[in-house]
C-alpha cells in the first residue's frame, strides 16, 4: 500500500472509505490543518471549569502534559491509516467486525455532532455581535441558521476544502488568539492576579484531572485519526509526526484554555462572546476579534466535527460523502446548543467530556492492541472490504472490552480516559486469545482473492 503516489489529484468532496492512494497533505499543510482545527471554544469552557482549582502555572503545565499525550496517542492510532490509507470505520472492522463497527462509530459521531452544534452557536453569536455593533441588526437565531448553512456548504468540499481553509486561516487564528489573550490581561490583569495567579491550587487529583480534561476534548479525534492521517503523504516518521500533532494542538489549547480560566475567574461568566464584548473597548478591534471567533468555529467544525460522523453515515447507510456532510450539518440543529452555552452549563460540559471520554479511551485501547500486538502492524487490507470474510458480523471481544474499560473509567471520572486503557486493552487481548468466537477474527488462513475495484467500492 505504500507504492508511488497516484498521479491524479482528488476532486473536491470525492471522499470514500476505500484505501486512499492520492495523498493531498504535506507535513506543513497537515500541521496547519490541525492548528486551525483545534481552536475550540469548548477548550474555553474547559478552562472556565478550572476556576478555583488550579493556578496559572498549574493550568499551563496540565495543558502541556495533555497535549503531549494527545500527540503520542494520535501518532500511535493513526499509523494504520497513514500506512494503508484506510479510515477509522474500516480500521475498526478487525476489532469490532463489519456490523460491530457501528458501536465505536456511534460513540465517535455523537460528541462530534454535539460539539458541531455548540460551536456553531458560538460562531453565530460572534456574527450577531458584529451585526448588532455595525448595523443594529440583532437576531441570533437568524445568524445561527445562516452560519450553519455556510458551514454545510464548505464541508461538502471534503479534504480539498479543508486544506485550503486551514492553510489560509491558521495564521490569522494564531494572531487573533494572541490579541485576545493580551486584551484580557490588559483589562482584567489585577483581578486575574488575585483570583488565578496567586491562588495555591492543587498538584493532586484536580491537576491530573485537568490534564485529562483537555486531553478529553481531543479523545474523539484519537479514535478517528486515521481519517486524517490517510491524507498525509508517505515518509513522515513517528517522531516528527508526534511533534506535528503536539505542536499544532498546544498553541490553540494553551491560549483558549487560559483565556477561559482568566476571564471566568475575573468576571464569573463562561460566555466568550459576552466576555470579549466587554473586554475590547476599540470597536474595529472588537469586530475583528469576533469575526475571528466565528472563523475559528468553521475551521474546527469542518475538520473535526463533520468528517467523522459523515464517514459513519457513509459506512452504515452507504451514502456518498456530500450527502453525509449535509445530513451531519442538519443534525447539529437538533443539539439545542443555546442551552450548552449558558454559564451554568460549564460544569455540565465538563461532565459530558468526562463521560464520553470513558467510552472513547477503551475503544482507543482496543484498536491499539489489535493493530500493534495482535496483528503486528501488518494488515491484509482486502479482508477489510470483504463483508463475508473473517471480519463479518460482530466481534464481541471488542465491545465487551470497551464496556469493561468504560465501567472502570466511570468509577474514576476525573481521570476516566487514563483509567480505562489497561482494563480495556488487557480484556480485549485475553478474549481474542482464549475465547473461541473471537479467535476467528485472527484467522491465519490465506486471504481471499482481491475483490477488485467494484467490490471494494461496494463494500466500503
Provide the helix percentage.
Answer: over 70%
Tell me, briefly, the overall form: globular
Number of strands: 0
Strand-pairing-aware structural class? mainly alpha
Radius of gyration: 22 Å
In short:
The chain has 460 residues and is mostly helical.
Spell out the blueprint of helices and strands.
Elements: H1 27-37, H2 41-48, H3 56-77, H4 79-84, H5 88-91, H6 93-96, H7 102-135, H8 140-155, H9 158-197, H10 205-217, H11 219-223, H12 226-229, H13 238-267, H14 272-279, H15 283-317, H16 321-331, H17 337-340, H18 345-374, H19 396-411, H20 416-434, H21 436-439, H22 452-459
Describe this structure as you would to a colleague.
With 460 residues, the chain is an all-alpha fold. It is built from 22 helices and no strands. Helix 1 (27-37) packs across helix 15, helix 3 (56-77) packs across helix 10 (205-217) and helix 7 runs antiparallel to helix 15. The longest helix has 40 residues, at 158-197. The radius of gyration is 22 Å and the shape is globular.
What are its keywords?
460 residues, mainly alpha, 22 helices, 72% helix, 0% strand
